[in-house]
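FYI - complex with iron/sulfur cluster, inputs then prediction.
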Amino acid sequence: MSIQTVSGGMTAPTWAESGQPYPYARTELVEPDWTRFPGWKDVTAEDWASVQWQRAHCVKNVKQLRTLWGDLVEERFYEDLERDQRERATMSMLVPPQMMNTMAPRDVPAGPGSLTEAMYADPIRRYMLPVFSDRRTDWPSHPHATRDSLHEHDMWVAEGLTHRYPTKVLAELLPTCPQYCGHCTRMDLVGNSTPVIDKLKFLGKPVDRHAEMLDYLRRTPSVRDVVVSGGDVANMPWPRLEEFLTQLLEIENIRDIRLATKALIGLPQHWLQDDVRAGVERVARVARQRGVSLAMHTHANHANSITPIVAEASRAMLDAGLRDVRNQGVLLAGVNADPNSLLDLCFALLDGAQIMPYYFYMCDMIPFSEHWRVSVADAQRLQHHVMGYLPGFATPRIVCDVPFVGKRWVHQLADYDRELGISYWTKNYRTSIESTDPEALQRHYEYYDPIHTLPEAGQQWWRQHSGDNLVEAERLAAESRRAAEQQALTLA
Ligand code: SF4
């Protein structure tokens, strides 16, 4: 394709550039100026680069947020947030300065309240600091929403080790993260309890739990792939994480290890520390010698999160010898559930930070998540819209994590009742709890669209068939008790 030149030396757009539904343009990453917030007006670049400073200045409550933003944000916003914390939040508040600085990133005119509307509209604020008025009042939760919506605890083969797929496991080494996302699928276990959710606690000591996980993997040669997760591995002191990884690498059957850390996005300063980089380099060297693929999986949901320091941390991990850094985002209405937002994010990851767009998960059916969730039909449309712009290897798959099944590409469903918003899925492997279930591979497994997205007849059906449910608080309390009993049974 030739470039057409017009008078004055400008190049005219070619067919590839004009009239496309998505107008691709390479954009430079930007670190927003943190001194625009009154609470950080004197913070230096040296402070900002320090992981200790970042951790010490995380925002953990509304009082700290008021100190940071002052009267740039109107009182009604703070009250909205406080109400959400009391009545809806399934995750406690924890936002590192790095993430906070990507909210409403552009300069606003100074003056009382001038930041309010930008904060209400901001995509990163919408999932890191949800407010009560963000949530739906007609159906705040789906009637089938549950605390452990993926039934990971049911599939624990050692405390925190989920064996769901035939050849791979998820190892939850710890239940904390440097940041807490409002939509966290592991809200049952991760983070501090909130007024609404009493969290489960691991019962075993970390050292014993990790030893049991490794023991299971030694005894189970059919497992070749371990997601080393949490929580977030950035919250594990590096020497302990290195010790676990070193032992993992000694197990002959383990061929793939992925380190799960949103901190690469939320607290990249962690992965830029000299001792951590040196440690990753040591582990990556051993992995290479043994022919094991060691990669990092991170979690970015919006292009604004991808800043120069995130790119620097990603580069540091690749330089340290990781095979790849990949992104597993979550599809969230109001954050990224439109084609341009998804493509902007993918290009920022790929062009700016050499992070591979990999998956977008549909938001799981946890309590109070209906305002974030989209229907399977919408997810299919989004998958269609993002095809063809990115290289094939970097085109993310949009997947639905179907309870008792696992990840399914959104076009893989077996049947779909669009009126009731029920999709039906099948699977081609047994999970660890179905080894003797003759129906496991014939059964249809259900996933539910948000009710507010259904036609009126479907919404009417749900009103009639879920009206007798316990009120939300009672339902969650009952579920907490069931989860605790289940945990005790699993470990018995
Ligand atoms: S970083 Fe991951 S595990 Fe931690 S709160 Fe966010 S989604 Fe949950």
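Residues 1-9 have pLDDT under 50 and may be disordered. The two ends are 67 Å apart (CA to CA).
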